[in-house]
Amino acid sequence: MSRFLHIASLTAVLVMVCAPLRAQAPDDQFLGKYQLRKMVMVGRHGVRSASLSKGERRITPHPWHQWSVGAGQLTERGALLEQYMGCYFRAWLTKAGLFSDDDDRHAADCYVYANTMRRTVETASSFLQGFMPQAGVEVVYNKDIAFGDMDQVFNNASTYAGSYFLAKVKAEAEYASGPGGFAAVVDSMQHNAAILASVLDLAGSPACQQGDTCSLTFPEPYNYLHKDWMPRIRGGRIDLTRLTAGNFILQHYDAPSPDEGTFGLGISDDDLIRIGYIKEMWCFLSMGTPSVGKDAAHHLLVKLENVLQDDAHHFVYLVGHDSNLSSLTGALGVKPYMLPDTPEMKTPLGGKLVLEIWEDEQGEAWVGVRYVYQSLRQVMELMPLSLDCPPASYPLELTGLQPNDDGLYRWQDVLSLIRRAIDDYGTLNVPLSHDVNLDGVVDMLDAVDIVKYSLDQPFKVFYQPQADTNTDGVVDTGDAIQLARIIAGGIPGSR
Question: Which residues pair with 370 in a beta bridge?
């Protein structure tokens, strides 16, 4: 099983408490050491209605929940929850000393930018109703494109789809899957899909009765990249299962009762997490690894760098989608995480990636990075948020950067990380010579894999075009020896 989620302890992910992990406002001791200078958030829109395809309607004999808004739109619950989030962040920023109680004084400090879609714009507007209701802060969106079209900032379409880039993306998904690799994650999702099929009563559905879909299976899944399309993992019933799992969670959130939200069956928290895991992990493995993240999130990274350095605004909120959060965390090298208290353990609805810029007594700038979101209980019970009952907050770690004792990263290090991710965009499809296992480093592990390949021994990842080190047209132990010599003497581009 993947290091991201141990099935034996799934229920621990849904510990529902009023004050989740590290969600409190900074205490007096912290505020004695640091002064908050800016907050930038990248968020996913709030709870929306489902967009049910004909295929999804056919795989259950039960009627789906009837939403009060059109397909894919922000629900009343979603709007209210986002308003609660706005109230909480205003209280938090006031406690931290960035804002006062005077809306008019701070209106010009705020910049809220949303994708050009109804649910993202309405999410931003709902947030502002709680955050700064009297200031008249406008939601900014790109009015040069048709409303409902994707803004380039939030567009996750692939730029690269060549054989080398695809091999690299597959390798990164393999590494990200942890012990057992990609196959172990697929096995776990196959088991979870069987739970979803049982909840749907797939066996009694029109799809099964008519003989076309009696199980949710995905043999031999594969990464699918196509220029100008969003990255996907496909194979068998993956698309149908992923979309259905996501829509089941939406129904569970919005139905009048838990019983109605589960087609009258009622399910355990453990099974709810397993169903959420299907959607979350397919999205993560499709878009949340470094190379595909840097490709898909390139324009969002550029926007993020700009707003972080914009001295005119001290509060910035960029509102997009789960795919934006997946690709952004992948591009920034966020270490593996599983958010507790929610079935959406990667990119929960209404969740926000928060970057706080602090200044210490010596004038040095530091950055705090965390994920803030509402727990399942807060979503289901429509719980108002406050400093005494805050949303869940989970600290995120950045690969390659060392935090200080207070969990903060140097500002210049974070800015350099973002700039490298932007700069890497132009070289994503340029092979790193001799990187046989496609892990971004040329070392003896590459030589070892050449030996394994030559002896027909198992290996995790092997990209053969990189392995013919001595360029004799044959991959054998001679290439491993040559690579070892190159490594010992140092080679350009290795790291």
Answer: 354, 395
**How far is Cα 435 from Cα 407, in angstroms, rounded to an integer?**
33
> What span, in angstroms and rounded, lies between the C-alpha atoms of 43 and 319?
5
* Beta strands at 139-140 and 110-114: parallel, antiparallel or unpaired: parallel
Amino acid at 270: D
Backbone φ and ψ of 63, nearest 5° = -75, 140
Strand 315-320 relative to strand 34-44, pairing: parallel
Q: Where are the beta strands (DSSP E) in 196-279?
A: 222-224, 232-234
At position 218, the amino acid (one-letter code) is: F
Q: What is the DSSP letter of 294?
A: H
pLDDT of 135: 86
Strand ranges in 288-410 using DSSP code E only, listed in sequence order: 315-320, 352-360, 365-373, 392-395, 409-410
Q: What is the DSSP string of 402-445?
A: ---TTS-EEHHHHHHHHHHHHHHGGGTTS--TT-TT-SS--SHH
Residues β-bridged to residue 149: 147
User: Which two three-digit tokens encode residue 56?
Assistant: 């999804």
**Per-residue tokens: 463:** 């990209």
What is the length of the chain? 495
Instruction: Say if CB 347 and CB 283 are below 8 A apart.
Output: yes
Alpha-carbon gap, residue 445 to 386, rounded angstroms: 51
Which stretches of the chain drop beneath a pLDDT of 50?
1-23, 492-495
Nearest to 375 by CA among 362, 385, 363: 385
pLDDT digits (tens, 9 = 90+) for 183-197: 999 999 999 999 999
What pLDDT shows up at residue 256? Answer: 85
Listing DSSP states for 105-161 in one string gives HHGGGEEEEE-SSHHHHHHHHHHHHHH-TTTTPPEE--TTS-BTBPPGGG---BS--
